[in-house]
User: What shape does this take?
Amino acid sequence: MELRQLEAFYWIVRLGSYSAAAKTLNTTQPAISMRIRELQRDLGVTLFDTASRRAHLTSKGRDLFDYAESMLNLASTIHIRMGDRSTLSGRIRVGATETIALTWLPTLVAHMNEAYPQVVLELEIGLTLDLWAKLAAGEHDIVMLPGPILDIGLDWHHLGSIDYCWMASPKLEHQRSVLSPHDLEQFPIISLPKASSLHEDIERWFTMNNANPNRMYYCNSLNVVFALTASGLGVSLLPPSIFSDAIATGELCVLDVQPSMPPLDFFVACAQKPVSPLPVIVAEAAMKVTSFRNPNRLSR
Assistant: This one.
């Protein structure tokens, strides 16, 4: 019995198919099938129900899964604590929101390429709730996104906070120097979709201040939110650190809105006992290179 056989078995069960396990392990489906045949021959048992088109476990397969997970966790711990990290290889699926992609994600990728040249990062930029769903489904190994943390069964670390401010084009006329939530009701609000943490924060802020926008426009990109806002089509909540050039050139102006929005906290999260050392290494690298304010003050 070899560790790579248990690894193939684990990912088939976790992802639901031989093909998904092959993609995760960067190999072919026939190679995964061979590992399972060898594992079954070594143990003298049948692990999967061959009558089913999907990877359904037999009773012996269900018994093996916990042992396989424990062995892979132990191997991961040994590699992290004892091994030469520079020799690590493999693929890790990383999900991140656009705010991270537009700030320090390139620095993280450059750091990983230099420190771990044999590790391949598979990046996906998405909305908060979509990233959570893919982490839960085993489609991502690690995610970097705004809080709150939705699953108590995760290891997570604080990546810092970033300010968001209400912004508009100078073309959009308003009568007061200091605006309230009720003043913003008259303008269209340009926001990320409902699957984003930012959208939830906007709705919560208006509700807490007994206000309700008359109209909201949704798009799934901060850059598109910026473009629509700069065109004078409405007001939006944007991070001034990302759009500082547009503020400096007068494309956008920061509105003085009271009460202001609280900073948005970001986190990196992965399984508590990853079967690969790579999520831990990427999380450590993210905490090292983050450009957000006051990182690492919260963790588990």
